[in-house]
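To the structural biology subgroup,

Please find below the input and predicted structure for Histidine ammonia-lyase, which we are adding to the shared reference set this quarter. The sequence is reproduced verbatim from the submission form. If anyone notices a discrepancy with their own records, reply to this email rather than editing the shared folder directly, so we keep one authoritative version.
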Amino acid sequence: MNQTPVTVGIGALSFEDVIRVARHRAPVVLSEESLAEIAKSSERIRQLAHQTIPVYGVSTGFGALASKHIPAEMRTALQRGLIRSHAAGSGKEVETEVVRALMLLRLSTLATGRTGVRPEVAQAYADMLSANLTPVVYEYGSLGCSGDLAPLAHCALAIIGEGQVRDEQGQLWDTADALQQHGLTPVVLAEKEGLALINGTDGMLGMLVMAITDLDRLTRLADVAAAMSLEGLVGTDRVFAADLHSLRPHPGQQAAAANMLKVLEGSDIIQHHSGNHSTYVQDAYSLRCAPQVAGAVRDTVEHARTVAIRELASAIDNPVVTFDGRVESNGNFHGAPVAYVLDFLAIAVADAASISERRTDRFLDTARNRGLPPFLADDPGVDSGHMIAQYTQAAIVSELKRLAAPASVDSIPSSAMQEDHVSMGWSAARKLRTSIDGLSRVLAIEILTAARGIDLRAPHQAAPASAAVIARLRQDVAGPGSDRYLAPEIQATVELVASGELLAAAEKVTGHLD
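Predicted structure (tokenized):
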């Protein structure tokens, strides 16, 4: 499929740029301005390479070996050896979208002209992305400091024609053969270039951008799920009134409450029962406080977005070529800013899933579900209904709580105590990806259960938005009845969550939810 290329230049990439390249395999081109700036700083490195004064990464070793002077005739071997030795990853292969984001964001830093690489090095990354050749990168090997070292080194290994890559169909190739097949030539690295290819927060940043993108969708769907649960449990929508939320003006909370009101607008179920439950003075917290929790999740996402935008505008390398031509060592590769928000998001995701599971559980208990059958079963006792669907939710939520333990509070010194404090941001990003997958599954089960509960309220009619979600769900999952094989129904709902179709069904009625 032909796509408009993403242009990588001196300025920051957008979230959309990252997603298009990482997930939709858009090709990449370098701007003429960036190529000129790259050439300019590259010439500065060539000048320094011939001076007698040692410059870190240009004429010295690396890390704890920085005091070792390297003669000019050995510097190509130095850079090649750096990449080979640092390509030390282990474990399962990292997902293609993560590797493509990793490469794109490293290229974005190269394009600023602050790293000192030659234009052909940057072009090699653009060419590999455009050819859909994805280096094999492994799960373990980054401490989130001095760059995502091993993951980036595996990418750099590919442009020098070594290691392995996968093509667009996922077939595994020796890199040298894949480059030849696509008419690409391996790069011979010059001074500093190997170092410039591995010094960055690109892996954790790419995963952060994708996590925020996913959560922009899932937070809106969580509001739909909460509203449907409240409707199926015959709660009151009065607690979502705008004037109540203006008393505590957190923007995320106000947006969530407004979304829930939109979804519930026109509900015959709520209107019919509004005067019939005088003993129901207040709904349980999982219903009444849904906007407060959903709002806190939203505000956490917004904080993470601010950090990600700043990081996308950054040029991270060590040493770095300054605008006035100096080459200076620095610590901008430390992943703490990104690691913290990755961990913060994992906490928010776990809590969003936790409150969702509590709403689901209410549907199954006759003491709390306001007139529905036990476990929403067709023939309770003979049928178990959604009893074990809640078990699945509970298992996921328990796992998400474990994943909410922050990675960024840990640090293991490395490189003979030269790198004595690290961020563990890559680890924070990896566990957040698992958390977001778990949240998608928990929300799917809540919607599956809420839809069944609403159907069991017939002949009273659901709100038009709820009805639209249920109608889309019913194309793939049947309504109430005797027990059926439940796992495929859960999986079908998960896929509708992941594709955005359930959210789209609601928004066809409500308009865009915030």
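Summary notes: The longest helix spans residues 202-232. The chain has a mean pLDDT of 94.

Regards,
Lab coordination
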